[in-house]
Specification:
The chain is of the alpha+beta class. 15% of the residues lie in helices and 37% in strands. It is extended.
Length: 180
């Protein structure tokens, strides 16, 4: 009787890598025949004596790998891999469509893509720290697209749909009053 071997399923996973070693980690993984995806973006960098176009990781400290269970430990044996991004104690599986969206987004070279660790949610208190409304504080009412946010500005007494880039706002935390 013939033994039927079913191929192991391959999934995308995110791997934390050592600081500033995303490209080295990718090269090592590819050398070890592991499929990788490192979203890179061209940016114009300014030094004191010149400007230069460089490719930088879109998401610092991460590399995506497409592996089966067989290659799981091989990834962690890399000189640059720290650990898998985990969800409920297991290496998180990144849906294929999200990797495809990232690839499509990076093909749009008409604009720079910004990734922020800050997650803005309606109801949060924010402060504008750049642009024409600098210094104003308010309540984030709605996020519309990439750069439009609706903010209720207490100083003005009404809600305004203001086109502010999310880089120009930050969550405002009231300083904790110490008891004396």
């Amino acid at each position: 009787m013939e033994k039927i071997v079913t191929p192991l399923p391959y999934h995308w996973h995110a791997v934390y890598v050592k600081s500033r070693s995303e490209k080295k980690a990718q090269a090592e993984m590819q050398f070890n025949e592991i499929e990788t995806f490192l979203p890179l973006q061209r940016r114009l960098r300014q030094w004191s004596d010149r400007k230069k176009w460089v490719e930088t990781p879109l998401i610092s400290g991460y590399l995506f790998v497409r592996i089966s269970r067989k290659e799981y430990d091989k990834v962690l044996q890399s000189n640059y891999a720290v650990s898998y991004v985990r969800f409920e104690g297991k290496a998180a599986i990144i849906p294929e469509r999200q990797i495809e969206y990232l690839k499509l987004m990076l093909k749009q070279n008409l604009f720079e893509v910004e990734v922020s660790q800050e997650r803005f949610e309606p109801g949060q208190q924010i402060e504008v720290h750049a642009g024409p409304l600098i210094g104003l504080r308010g309540t984030l009412v709605k996020i519309k697209g990439k750069s439009k946010v609706a903010v209720q500005l207490e100083q003005l007494g009404y809600s305004a749909l203001v086109e502010i880039h999310t880089d120009d706002i930050r969550i405002f935390h009231e300083p904790v009053q110490s008891e004396r």
